[in-house]
Each structure stands twice: as C-alpha cells, then as structure tokens.
Design goal:
Shape: globular
Helix content: 10-25%
Number of strands: 15
Order of helices and strands: EHEHHEEEEEEHEHEEEEHEE
Radius of gyration: 19 Å
Number of helices: 6
Strand order of the largest sheet: 7-8-9-10-11-12
Largest sheet: 6 strands, mixed
Structural class: alpha/beta
Strand content: 25-35%
Distance between the termini: 20 Å
Length: 292
C-alpha cells in the first residue's frame, strides 16, 4: 500500500528576527491555499531569524532574540500547525538553552498543535556560527505514514548524520538550509549522495535569492532529483511515497545495490578506530526494517 506524503517546500527569504508570527502565518496560509493537498510545509533554516544588522553584529542579535522551546514563539507556532491541521517545519529557530547557550534548532509541529520533535544542529558551521552543538540525532514518527529524520544545513556534509538517521528508521531526511555562499552546488551533490548511500528521500530547502542561493530540491531513494527550484522565491511541491524506500531497499538501487543487506551472520565486526567503535553486522539493519 502506498504511503503518500504531500510536501511543500517554501523557498523564501527570511523574516526579520522578532517579526510577529502573524506574518509567518499568512505565508503558510498562502502556501496551503495554493496547494491544498499538502500535509507537510517546510521552511528554510533560521527562516524566522533573518538579520536586521551588519554581519559583525549578528551574534549579538541572535543572543538578543533567542527563544526557549517552552517560550511564546514555539507555542504560537504549534497553535498555528494545529489550526491549519498540517505538519509544520518552520525551519530552525535560535534556541536559548541551559545557561543561556544558543542552539540552531529544527522543530516539527504536529497537526494536533504539539511540538513533536526538536533537533539541535550537531555540526554548526564553524567558525561562522555561534551555536553550541547538539548531542543527539532525532527522528520523528508521522502516524500512519512513516518516519522522518532531521538534519540542518552543514550537517549534510558529515555522512555520519544521514547514515545514523537512516539506521534509526528515517525514510525521509529533511534538511533546512540557509546557504548564502558559493557552495550550494556541492550541497546538491551531497543531497543526492546521502540519498543514494542510505536509500532515503532527502528534502533540502534553502533560502531564496537575493539573501540565499535557493535551488531547493527533492531527491528520491535512488538519488534521482524529483524536483528542483531556481534561486527565486517559490514553492516546490511533491508527493513522496514512503513505500518507495522499502522497495529500493528490498530490490536494490538500480535493481542491484542492497546496502542495508551487506552483512551475513558469519561476518565479523569491523573496528572503526576513528570512532573508537566498530560496525557490528548484527546491528547493521535500520530500525523497523523487515527481516530478510
């Protein structure tokens, strides 16, 4: 049975930090009016924390506008998702954590108006970002549909993130991005590579020009680009069939490569000196994968 997930990627310029949530709500409502079958709306990284200041003052601006997860901003966003009855991924927020630490945190807000998941970016873009890294990978179940995994922008450059999310059972990796630099071309390659080597969908939504470089895209579990935007503000739509992940893993990429069925019971663990750990064949298959 197909498990469709209609998504809308809102490639747009960021709103100024501290702007009323009503401005964001109008944009989400416009997206849904244009694409009424959408079940999940996704925005770029730091979409609600656009800068009003020169780069030298950006860190101070973030510190002044950061919000806790139990604060009014997240509460209003959750209420918005509940009012509209959709899964809402509003990009990331600048989260104020324990002791005043700043985190770049992705949110998943449910159609029931609840904060279902939050993920702190594990690989902030150093030395350019002031955030404290997160300490765990996060997946989120969509009842009746499947499981998504969260990564943020620069996380895509580290294969450990996508591999771990896929191992945790993610069938879609959602990667909100705020790329304003010349390396978007490389990110497009990484999106396809992460999809191919983990046999998952990858959804990467970037900030629109002139602030960002756009080119949001949706990649299927075999690495094919299903949809891609230009640089201008737009809404990219697609319907992901999460059963396609199971099909590719069962029969192989291009009908050949079954990366999650690599090991046999007779294979020995492989030491990984870099991690002071190892690959254990008995733990290789993703969570929720059917038996061979």
């Amino acid at each position: 049975m197909p498990r469709p997930l209609p998504v809308a990627l809102a490639q747009s310029e960021p709103l100024p930090a501290g702007a009323p949530v009503s401005r964001f709500a109008e944009h989400v409502e416009d997206v849904l009016a244009g694409f009424p079958g959408t079940r999940m709306v996704i925005f770029p990284e730091l979409h609600l924390f656009g800068s009003r200041v020169r780069p030298a003052d950006r860190d101070a601006e973030l510190a002044a506008t950061a919000q806790p997860l139990d604060g009014p901003l997240v509460r209003q966003l959750a209420e918005l998702a509940g009012d509209l009855g959709v899964w809402l991924l509003p990009g990331t927020i600048c989260e104020r954590g324990d002791g005043g630490a700043l985190h770049n945190t992705a949110l998943v807000l449910s159609p029931e108006g609840e904060l279902t998941a939050s993920y702190r970016k594990v690989f902030p873009w150093r030395p350019y970002e002031p955030y404290l890294p997160g300490d765990r990978f996060v997946v989120c179940d969509l009842p009746g549909t499947g499981r998504i995994g969260l990564s943020v922008c620069y996380d895509a450059w580290f294969p450990e993130v996508a591999r771990h999310l896929a191992w945790m059972g993610a069938e879609v990796i959602v990667n909100p991005v705020m790329t304003t630099t010349a390396d978007r071309a490389q990110e497009l390659v990484l999106a396809r590579a992460n999809a191919i080597v983990n046999q998952v969908y990858v959804v990467s939504v970037n900030t629109a020009a002139p602030t960002g470089t756009g080119r949001s895209l949706v990649v299927d579990p075999e690495g094919r680009v299903r949809a891609e935007a230009g640089e201008a503000a737009t809404v990219l739509t697609d319907v992901l069939d999460l059963d396609d992940v199971a099909r590719v893993r069962r029969h192989g990429t291009a009908g050949l490569n079954r990366v999650w069925s690599q090991f046999t019971d007779a294979d020995r663990p492989i030491d990984l000196p870099l991690y002071q750990g190892r690959i254990d064949p008995g733990r290789w298959r993703p969570a929720g994968a059917p038996p061979e």
